[in-house]
């Protein structure tokens, strides 16, 4: 008897889950309500799609094992993504000072537009598996509190039932999973939202001639000043372009949507380097603004009851403030958990879905802790405030970051956690603790740690002083 898996949502999480399932079933049907573009173009159902995205090393490593017979890293690089060393290829101003750049190679991250990444992953999965995508709107789950047996679809010809041996909800932040579960008799799902009111504003520029290898540049927001946060980033992406994303929290930190205000905002950041770079660059797009940025989590792993053969992944499970660049890596790590569990036990084995749902809580916890522990410090954050534990953790992590501005050992620990190759416990290893207590052996950089050639590029682009 043939076996069918159904995945709700053809975004990154959905396609990676489909790839994992394709190795153990005869048919994987991905259900997507939106029209999908034929190329690397933005689509309606992805509100954050036009803003900066980073694929961290931990997420890329998980992707490498998911699609049979290919290297996702090589595929993405061939499609136009850029590979950047977090240790040497980035200029980063943190609340504790500028990070130094080290000759030792640290974790690599990929940068590209979200449109390119989603399209490239979708092409890879469809080319190397028997996964197929069908345009449809899911109305509800079939089954009961003990087992999900498929989905009910809404089609132009009326409702349709699609049975399945396994169902994954990867329908994104607008998922109706809590309502669906309630209709099966599973209620009391705990949810939490922490919202700093972050607004993103992004514009794409042509990479200036001679600046193709200029480092990724980021000025981070400082959540510890009791005022709205402001940040800016220049991200190299495919097609010889710079994606410039600004982000600010409610209460006065929000970036504007007009060109003059956009540039002025970059120059008013704690360091004007982003503004100096783009002041001499050619804009290619209008400024796109988005407000879908809250941290929201459904604690499905804590539900007293959970149906067999049903799993929730990606933004349907948890969303994070995009300023911290974790969402795509978390989705890949979650799909990796599903893949490993499927390799260990049969698709229909009792308890599989529950083990997966509890297993994916680990990467979600790591990303949630990193994002929320900073967002709660912004003055008008809704849904959370610093606790005694937050204050103790923040005091230590700030000291780690301060040490990392002049200590390779501390910096490597921060890179591993940021890249999601290790969990937050990496900061508590004896070597990291010792380095933190000893303090940085080198002073933090007085300014952006650029090479002579990079300074020349910046001077050549800077129109602000002319």
TrEMBL record:
<dbReference type="GO" id="GO:0071949">
    <property type="term" value="F:FAD binding"/>
</dbReference>
<dbReference type="Pfam" id="PF01494">
    <property type="entry name" value="FAD_binding_3"/>
</dbReference>
<dbReference type="InterPro" id="IPR002938">
    <property type="entry name" value="FAD-bd"/>
</dbReference>
<dbReference type="InterPro" id="IPR036188">
    <property type="entry name" value="FAD/NAD-bd_sf"/>
</dbReference>
<feature type="signal peptide">
    <location>
        <begin position="1"/>
        <end position="19"/>
    </location>
</feature>
<keyword id="KW-0732">Signal</keyword>
<protein>
    <recommendedName>
        <fullName>FAD-binding domain-containing protein</fullName>
    </recommendedName>
</protein>
<feature type="domain" description="FAD-binding">
    <location>
        <begin position="5"/>
        <end position="344"/>
    </location>
</feature>
């Amino acid at each position: 008897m043939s076996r069918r898996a159904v995945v709700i949502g053809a975004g990154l999480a959905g396609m990676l889950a489909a790839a994992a399932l394709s190795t153990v079933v005869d048919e994987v049907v991905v259900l997507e309500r939106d029209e999908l573009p034929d190329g690397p173009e933005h689509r309606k159902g992805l509100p954050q799609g036009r803003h900066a995205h980073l694929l961290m090393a931990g997420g890329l490593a998980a992707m490498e094992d998911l699609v049979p017979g290919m290297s996702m890293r090589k595929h993405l690089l061939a499609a136009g993504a850029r590979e950047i060393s977090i240790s040497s290829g980035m200029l980063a101003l943190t609340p504790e000072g500028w990070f130094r750049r080290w000759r030792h190679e640290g974790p690599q991250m990929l940068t590209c537009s979200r449109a390119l990444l989603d399209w490239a992953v979708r092409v890879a999965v469809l080319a190397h598996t028997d996964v197929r995508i069908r345009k449809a709107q899911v109305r509800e789950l079939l089954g009961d509190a003990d087992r999900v047996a498929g989905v009910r679809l809404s089609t132009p010809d009326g409702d349709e039932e699609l049975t399945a041996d396994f169902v994954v909800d990867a329908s994104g932040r607008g998922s109706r999973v809590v309502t669906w579960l309630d209709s099966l008799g599973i209620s009391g799902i705990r949810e939490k939202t922490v919202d700093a009111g972050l607004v993103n504003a992004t514009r794409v520029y042509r990479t200036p001639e001679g600046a193709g290898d200029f480092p990724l540049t980021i000025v981070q927001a400082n959540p510890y000043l009791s005022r709205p946060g402001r940040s800016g980033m220049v991200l190299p992406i495919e097609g010889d372009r710079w994606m410039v994303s600004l982000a600010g929290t409610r209460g006065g930190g929000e970036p504007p949507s007009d060109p003059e205000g956009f540039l002025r905002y970059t120059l008013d950041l704690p360091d004007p380097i982003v503004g100096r770079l783009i002041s001499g660059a050619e804009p290619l797009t209008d400024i796109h603004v988005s407000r879908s940025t809250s941290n929201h989590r459904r604690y499905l792993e804590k539900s007293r009851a959970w149906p067999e053969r049903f799993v929730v992944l990606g933004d349907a499970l948890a969303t994070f403030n995009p300023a911290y660049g974790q969402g795509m890596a978390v989705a890949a790590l979650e799909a990796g958990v599903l893949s490993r569990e499927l390799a260990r036990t049969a698709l229909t084995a009792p308890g599989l879905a529950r083990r997966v749902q509890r297993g994916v809580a680990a990467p979600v916890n790591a990303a949630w802790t990193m994002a929320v522990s900073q967002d709660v410090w912004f003055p008008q954050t809704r849904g959370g405030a610093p606790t005694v534990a937050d204050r103790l953790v923040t005091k230590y992590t700030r000291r780690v970051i301060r040490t990392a501005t002049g200590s390779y050992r501390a910096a490597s620990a921060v890179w591993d956690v940021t890249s999601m190759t290790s969990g937050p416990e990496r900061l508590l290893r004896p070597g990291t603790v010792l380095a933190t207590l000893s303090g940085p052996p080198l002073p933090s950089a007085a300014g952006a740690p650029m090479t002579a050639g990079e300074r020349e590029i910046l001077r050549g682009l800077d129109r602000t002083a002319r």
